[in-house]
Amino acid sequence: MASSGQTVLQFSSPPTNVSARVHPLVIFNICDFYVRRPDQAEKVIGTLLGSVLPDGTIDIRNSYVVPHNESSDQVALDIDYHHNMLLSHQKVNPKEIIVGWFSTGFEVTGGSALIHEFYAREVSNPVHLIVDTGFKNGEAAIKGFVSINLSLGDQQLAAQFQEIPLDLRMVEAEQIGFDVLKPTTVDKIPNDLEGMEASMERLLALLDEVYKYVDDVVEGRVAPDNEIGQFISDTVASIPKLSPHTFDKLVNDNLQDQLLLLYLSSITRTQLSLAEKLNTAAQIL
Asked: pLDDT by residue (tens digit) across 149-172?
């Protein structure tokens, strides 16, 4: 059959079952970058680092900001800065590679396609992560996208961003910090002792929940779950057997170490402040 010679409008095939797992450190870094941005900058963008897991999930573990200038029709990135930062990060974590890029805001903008095109040359199928640091809807919304090219014959017309599932993974220690920063206003960041107190209060609350569950199972108010029972058994078995005296000594020694670190850090801050003031006074005189 002879070819009709018609031009075909087509989409590039999207990556199948693409999802991303984001660690809280990435979100904290992006928020910190946004707070420290230059006065004239409306948003910040940067590079996402991580790895691709065997099941295809993109594991985003780190990030760094990249200076840029953006207008209505063009975007200028500091590519040299980007490559220098990448080399510095890979000296510490050689297994981390570029997996995409991030920007602050609440939606994909006109310049997103240009930036995404640059990162597509750095890595195949980069992820675009958007973090709403302005709390437009009352919370810090986090979205992830991949790009699909729209072509007319051999000519590429545009890029369509398709949202992908995101999984915000965190351990218990990270959950406490995330709960502190999750509200739109925070009076102050807790110090080490306040953080330890919050951790102990949450631990006691979890122990109360476990105790209530076990009591309900024993009394017949709740049907037993073998998986939960096995998990509780493994947790209890992992606790070292210590005498009350040894346990008290261990806790008190650790507390004294924490207080010593706080004391030394306070002295260091005081010395740095005095040195800065003396240096300023010497320059004036």
From this structure: 766 666 666 667 888 888 877 766
CA 104 → CA 15, 33, 72, 78, 133, distances in Å?
Answer: 24, 10, 17, 18, 6
pLDDT, one tens digit per residue, over 226-235 is: 888 888 888 8
The CA-CA-CA angle for residues 37, 41, 46, to 5°, reads 60
User: Using H for helix, E for strand and C for coil, what is the string for the chain?
Assistant: CCCCCCCCEEECCCCCCCCEEECHHHHHHHHHHHHCCCCCCCCCEEEEEEEECCCCCEEEEEEEECCEEECCCCEEECHHHHHHHHHHHHHHCCCCEEEEEEEECCCCCCCHHHHHHHHHHHCCCCEEEEECCCCCCCCCCEEEEEEEEEEECCEEEEEEEEEECEEECCCHHHHHHHHHHCCCCCCCCCCHHHHHHHHHHHHHHHHHHHHHHHHHHHHCCCCCCHHHHHHHHHHHHHCCCCCHHHHHHHHHHHHHHHHHHHHHHHHHHHHHHHHHHHHHHHHHC
pLDDT digits (tens, 9 = 90+) for 126-149: 999 988 877 666 566 788 888 877
Could you tell me which of 135, 189, 134, 127 has the C-alpha nearest to residue 162?
A: 127
